[in-house]
């Protein structure tokens, strides 16, 4: 079906350009914009047709290398909206117009969601406390900056190899005057006793209530659990995804394109050596105390509830 | 030399702190809590409220300060009475639309909560009333308030009761694409809604009067024949719960004496008088007896949003001992104790009681600090089950109850929207 793949590839191209245009908005907003775009460009004349267009665009997006894992639930959100409004709307064009309008609204509110998360999460940071984090999450940075407005505390950031994006977090916090300490990923257990809480972002929040995030999150959660420190997640609800992995092997395949940190300056690994560089891991829900989302402060079981409501 | 005082003497003192108000007033330190941090109060924060409401609030606060009002059920009832008065006389404060009523209620609530931050039920009741106001406004005063009804009706049979009322306010993943709910409270006239709101408050009051009975109804589902139950302190809900179970079942109760107040001793006496086989132990013996205990049943001063408990001092120790022997901890608390706030910081929501029962003033010891905290925070992972008047629920599902009874915009009483 050449026509289908053309529309789908258009959605994928739209996603890539939206992401490049507005990196601050993040992948979720770009995906929502791309889905909205695919509705705009579609020639569908029935509700079934429209749902089909959305699902195909979603499939095309999820095949992209750095697409968010929540694409399927975002698609479902749109499809659900179509079936719900179908009863009330006057005609098909009405539904289409409304859908585009709301899609654009959602893309905008995804960005606003961060300030909401920052507001509800900031009280959890104690004055004089130490917060441990890793990777780079816009939600986490927003939350910490919001907390820094009313109290003094310090942050320890793990470098987060292979990408090393802990450096971005550290830089942004330091610029805002928050005391930041950088540690290597291997030093997480070493600094844990000093910490009051651990706060991480998420690439996806799963139906189990667990999260997929930058490699190293799982071990940080296990260390936090061993030291009985609360482990919190800050994430937008547009990242909720209907996945239920039972182990690390069940994650969608994803390897970082970067050079393996262990072989930087040493050339490629010799033949019998296998260099694995997983870019993300799965943290099971029993390690997560609470999730700060734009839907409120949720327990892991509340996340399952939300996703079940969406898909049942 | 310290004189040896016999503990029987302290048992008489029990909860009656009335005579010790002076010492307590100075000692009760109220750590400011994050969620209700107030801006610096102007000269008189109550100035906007109708004069009779001002009077009632000052009366209640004075009573609480002197610790003449200790039962949280009474505090809840009193708070509701003030709220009812406020709604009824809101015209005196030039409140003609719903938005200004919400502002008034929040103002009154904020003042009371700031004065007594550890009396969690005050904030809870204020938020319940705000939820009623918002509900009635949304329904245009046509439909009766549902949540309270369901709690009263479902009572013993819980699981079904919770499901029937799927009035879940607050945002949801499903409604992300919906247009933002633009209910302009300032355009709603208060006149027609006053009646239904007051009716709603009356329903909550009705619910308060049946809380213990509804919780006690569930007792036989949780206490089985020949079980050994451990409890401490003297919580009226737990007492009613155990007595209700004793009507049908034969079981043993072990009561920890709960030093220094000795409320456990009173509990033991009350249970024995009701014909329950009761054993009184020292607090230090809790770990020793835990191995043969089947269930720990405690009351709570407040149930926090994450499912953690604010409960009588010593509860955390009790729960940890129970965890060591894998004994389930069951908490009995009415829905009015459900607090939509998260505990943050080590000593928020706590207060210090008089050191008198620990060390008598006339013993003359100098330079000794004698802190006597009233409460413990018990983290949710140590609590197996929470039994409320709407039925049993797991701590990780407290958020559902919260969504059912409170509106998310009312979490922070100092913040006024629109």
Brief synopsis:
Chain B: It is found in: Cytoplasm, Cytosol. The complex is a heterodimer of chains A (312) and B (418). Chain A is α/β, with parallel strands linked by helices and 312 residues long.
Give a written overview of the molecule.
Chain B: Belongs to the eIF-2B alpha/beta/delta subunits family. Chain B: InterPro entries: eIF2B_beta_subunit (IPR051855), IF-2B-related (IPR000649), IF_2B-like_C (IPR042529), NagB/RpiA_transferase-like (IPR037171). Chain B: It comes from Chrysochromulina tobinii. Chain B: Keywords: Cytoplasm, Initiation factor, Protein biosynthesis. Chain B: This is Translation initiation factor eIF2B subunit beta. The complex is a heterodimer of chains A (312) and B (418). With 312 residues, chain A is α/β, with parallel strands linked by helices. Chain A has two domains: 107 residues, Four Helix Bundle (Hemerythrin (Met), subunit A) (Up-down Bundle), CATH 1.20.120; 187 residues, Translation initiation factor eif-2b, domain 2 (Rossmann fold, 3-Layer(aba) Sandwich). Chain A is 46% helix and 13% strand. In chain A, the strands form two sheets. Chain A has a seven-stranded mixed β-sheet. In chain A, strand 1, helix 6 and strand 2 form a beta-alpha-beta unit. In chain A, helix 2 runs antiparallel to helix 3, helix 3 runs antiparallel to helix 4 and helix 5 crosses helix 6. The longest helix of chain A is centred in the middle third of the chain and has 30 residues. Chain A is globular. The relative contact order of chain A is 0.12. With 418 residues, chain B is α/β, with parallel strands linked by helices. Chain B has two domains: 161 residues, Four Helix Bundle (Hemerythrin (Met), subunit A); 185 residues, Rossmann fold (3-Layer(aba) Sandwich). In chain B, 41% of the residues lie in helices and 10% in strands. Chain B has 15 helices and ten strands. In chain B, the strands form two sheets. In chain B, strands 3-2-1-4-7-9-10 form a seven-stranded mixed β-sheet. In chain B, helix 3 runs antiparallel to helix 4 and helix 7 runs parallel beside helix 9. Chain B starts with 6 loop residues before the first helix and ends in a 13-residue tail after the last helix. The N terminus of chain B is likely disordered. Classes of the chains: A alpha/beta (312), B alpha/beta (418). The interface between A and B is medium-sized, with 32 and 22 residues.
């Amino acid at each position: 079906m050449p026509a289908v793949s053309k529309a789908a590839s258009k959605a994928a191209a739209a996603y890539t350009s939206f992401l490049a245009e507005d990196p601050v908005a993040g992948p979720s907003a770009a995906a929502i914009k791309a889905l909205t775009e695919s509705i705009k460009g579609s020639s569908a004349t029935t509700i079934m047709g429209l749902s089909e267009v959305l699902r195909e665009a979603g499939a095309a997006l999820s095949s992209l290398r750095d697409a968010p894992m929540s694409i399927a639930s975002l698609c479902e959100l749109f499809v659900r909206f179509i079936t719900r409004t179908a009863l009330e709307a006057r005609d098909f064009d009405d539904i289409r117009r409304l859908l585009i309008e709301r899609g654009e609204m959602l893309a905008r509110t995804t960005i606003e969601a961060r300030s909401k998360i920052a507001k509800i999460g900031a009280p959890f940071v104690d004055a004089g406390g130490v917060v441990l984090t890793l990777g780079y999450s816009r939600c986490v940075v927003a939350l910490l900056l919001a907390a820094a407005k009313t109290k003094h505390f310090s942050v320890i950031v793990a470098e987060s190899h292979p990408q090393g994006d802990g450096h971005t977090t550290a830089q942004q916090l330091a610029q805002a005057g928050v005391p930041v300490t950088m540690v290597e990923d291997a030093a997480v257990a070493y600094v844990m006793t000093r910490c009051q809480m651990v706060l991480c972002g998420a690439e996806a929040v799963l139906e189990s209530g667990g999260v997929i995030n930058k490699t190293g999150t799982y071990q940080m959660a296990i260390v936090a659990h061993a030291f009985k420190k609360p482990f919190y997640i800050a994430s937008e609800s547009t990242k909720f995804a209907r996945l239920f992995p039972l182990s690390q092997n069940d994650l969608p395949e994803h390897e970082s394109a970067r050079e393996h940190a262990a072989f930087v300056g040493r050339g490629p690994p010799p033949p019998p050596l296998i260099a694995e560089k997983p870019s993300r891991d799965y943290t099971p829900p029993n390690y997560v105390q609470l999730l700060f989302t734009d839907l409120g402060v949720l327990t892991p079981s509340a996340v399952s509830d939300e996703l079940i409501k969406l898909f049942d | 030399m310290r004189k040896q005082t016999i503990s029987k003497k302290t048992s008489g003192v029990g909860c009656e702190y009335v005579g010790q108000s002076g010492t307590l007033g100075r000692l009760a330190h109220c750590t400011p809590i994050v969620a209700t941090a107030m801006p610096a109060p102007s000269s008189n924060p109550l100035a906007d409220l109708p004069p009779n409401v001002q009077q009632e609030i000052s009366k209640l606060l004075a009573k609480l300060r002197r610790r003449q009002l200790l039962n949280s059920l009474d505090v809840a009832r009193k708070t509701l009475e003030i709220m009812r008065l406020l709604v009824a006389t809101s015209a005196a404060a030039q409140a003609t639309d719903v938005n200004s009523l919400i502002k008034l209620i929040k103002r009154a609530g904020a003042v009371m909560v700031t004065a007594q931050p550890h009396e969690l039920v005050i904030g809870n009741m204020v938020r319940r009333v705000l939820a009623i106001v918002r509900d009635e406004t949304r329904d245009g005063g046509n439909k009766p308030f549902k949540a309270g009804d369901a709690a009263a009706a479902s009572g013993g049979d819980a699981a079904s009761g919770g499901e029937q009322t799927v009035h879940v306010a607050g945002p949801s993943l499903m409604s992300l694409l919906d247009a933002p709910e633009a209910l302009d409270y300032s355009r709603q006239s208060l006149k027609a809604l006053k009646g239904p709101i007051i009716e709603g408050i009356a329903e909550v009051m009705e619910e308060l009067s049946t809380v213990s009975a509804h919780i006690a109804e569930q007792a036989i589902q949780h206490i089985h024949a020949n079980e050994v139950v451990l409890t401490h302190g003297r919580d009226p809900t737990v007492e009613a719960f155990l007595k209700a179970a004793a009507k049908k079942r034969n079981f043993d109760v072990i009561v920890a004496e709960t030093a220094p107040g000795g409320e456990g001793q009173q509990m033991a006496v009350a249970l024995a008088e009701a014909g329950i086989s009761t054993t009184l132990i020292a607090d230090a013996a809790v770990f020793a007896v835990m191995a043969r205990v089947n269930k720990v049943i405690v009351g709570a001063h407040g149930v926090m949003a994450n499912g953690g408990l604010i409960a009588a001092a010593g509860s955390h120790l009790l729960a940890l001992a129970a965890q060591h022997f894998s004994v389930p901890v069951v908490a009995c608390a009415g829905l009015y104790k459900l607090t939509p706030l998260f505990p943050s910081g080590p000593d928020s929501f706590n207060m210090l009681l008089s050191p008198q029962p620990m060390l008598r003033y006339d013993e003359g010891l100098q330079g000794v600090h004698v802190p006597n905290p009233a409460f413990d925070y018990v983290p949710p992972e140590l609590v197996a089950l929470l039994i409320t008047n709407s039925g049993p629920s797991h701590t990780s599902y407290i958020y559902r109850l919260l969504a059912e009874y409170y509106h998310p915009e009312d979490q922070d009483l100092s913040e006024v929207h629109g």
